[in-house]
Amino acid sequence: MGDVLAGFHAAWEFESDSVLIRFERGIRTPKLFQALGERRIPLEAIAGVTLTPGRRGTVVLRAEPRPGADPLMDAAAGQLRESGDPYRLVLPAEREVLAEYYADELRARLPETDGPAERHLVAAPEGPRQFKAYDGKASFDGSSVSFRWFWTGASSAKWKAGDQSFPVNELSGVEWRSPEVFEGHLRLLHRDAATAPPGQADQDPAAVVFGLGYGPVHESLPFAAAVLAAVRAAEPAPAVGPAAARRRDPADIADRIRHLGELHQAGLVTDEEFTTKKAELLAEL
Length: 285
Fold this sequence. Notes:
The protein is α+β, with helices and mostly antiparallel strands. The protein has 3 domains: 4-109, PH-domain like; 129-234, PH-domain like; 242-283. It has 8 helices and 14 strands. The longest helix is centred in the C-terminal third of the chain and has 18 residues, at 217-234. The two termini are 43 Å apart.
């Protein structure tokens, strides 16, 4: 493909294996788009494509991200407004035929995938990152998250706990609640399931709270996405159990079973020994 389709606030460049989304930096462009700059979305990170009527003489081309493929959308957890959805391209209605052409072309190129992605396929916003919340300053250097409390906003529980630092390899995820809703916050989730956080984010030393212009979406959401991506990258590899450790080349197992059968036919192995050893070999597959 390699063509470019320009809409309001963004342009999509269609490549053989991805869609490159470039966001405008104009005054009317949503601040989240300006903060993101551009994003490359691999085709395997897209679950589907829709084209629907928009408002005031527009049409909307949208790529549906696969669950688990984009740390930004995972962190957002469906809380973004339509106008702030980076996977929507709004175009004038007179470009509907052209948009439909690109939608069909994109659908034809999508790989056949089923279910959530096993890993993040879209790059997270780059660090280092920081932003001011209502009760503290959050910083992320790529390996650890730090909270430094403000005496004007932090609760006594946070002052008592002191400033905090959290290595990403000790975290299991993040909980982002949009500052545009009640009780907005960013909470870090401990890998140790026994460490239950307090119910209220303003009492939890592993959380910062938003409000009164603090922790805006274009600052706190990319921050949360960057931390989430680092946490996923730091997750330990799945443990290899005894059964998995025994797995061998199927061709080798087949040769050994064939040889065992020859020994059995020659009377060098009893029926019981043949049955037992064959079962052991099959278990190694």
